[in-house]
Amino acid sequence: EAGVVQSPRYKIIEKKQPVAFWCNPISGHNTLYWYRQNLGQGPELLIRYENEEAVDDSQLPKDRFSAERLKGVDSTLKIQPAELGDSAVYLCASSFRNYEQYFGPGTRLTVT
Amino acid sequence: QKEVEQNSGPLSVPEGAIASLNCTYSDRGSQSFFWYRQYSGKSPELIMFIYSNGDKEDGRFTAQLNKASQYVSLLIRDSQPSDSATYLCAVIHSGGYQKVTFGTGTKLQVIP
């Protein structure tokens, strides 16, 4: 069974530029999560989808971050414009309902 | 008070010893608890989950849940150098949209 796929793995951009991350969850997993992880910290949930519906986006900085999960499968997380403080690892995870989560390899974002 | 608390460590144990990792949570109604292992530069990997009070064993790993005292523990028997990693505790809170919160993780070092 294929795992969670994320791309790109690494991204370096200048501040004020836009950036997008893509995630393909494990087949059959209806729940998809986007996390941000800073060095030495645990993952911080940005948004959780149940199928196409965003059921928890309370931690998503909506002034610059947006996400979508069309057709309830793949998802895209966008930052526009990026700030220096957005440098982090962005993790996507999926699960069947809201239970055991399986993580993708993550995208390491560096904003210069 | 943080919703999920872990001692950041590092916790150092000799090879072959039992490593004991602890996690406390603030939401008394939380129902689901997870332990993830994260190697440096890698994404979290699910190793245990527990939903009921008591112990759950899987190989060298035992998860212990005490809802009355609001803590969950992970025991690693016969610790190996390959167990050296950061261990993250995750909790699904009760009610509403069942928010997922991760602790900051405990770094474990197994000394050969």
Structure in words:
The complex is a heterodimer of chains A (112) and B (112). Helices cover 0% and strands 49% of the residues of chain A. Chain A contains no helices and eleven strands. In chain A, a hairpin with a 6-residue loop joins strand 7 and strand 8. The radius of gyration of chain A is 13 Å and the shape is globular. The relative contact order of chain A is 0.33. With 112 residues, chain B is an all-beta fold. Chain B has strands at 4-5, 11-14, 19-25, 32-38, 45-50, 54-58, 61-66, 71-76, 85-92, 100-102, 106-111. In chain B, strands 2, 4, 5, 9, 10 and 11 form a six-stranded mixed sheet that branches. Chain B has a five-stranded antiparallel sheet with strand order 1-3-8-7-6, with no helix packed on it. In chain B, strand 9 (85-92) and strand 10 (100-102) form a beta hairpin. Chain B is globular. The model of chain B has no long low-confidence stretch (mean pLDDT 94). Chain A binds chain B through residues 33, 35, 40-45, 48, 55-56, 58, 89, 91, 98-106, and chain B through 4, 8, 32, 34, 36, 42-46, 49, 88, 90, 92, 97-105.
